Amino acid sequence: MRLAEKTCVPCRGGVPPLNADQIGQLTPQVNNWSVVNGHHIEKEFKFSDFKTALDFVNRVGGIAEEQGHHPDIFLAWGKAQVKIWTHKINGLTESDFILAAKIDRAFERTETELENTETRRQ
Question: Tell me, which fold does domain 18-121 have in CATH?
Answer without folding.
Answer: Gyrase A; domain 2 (3.30.1360)
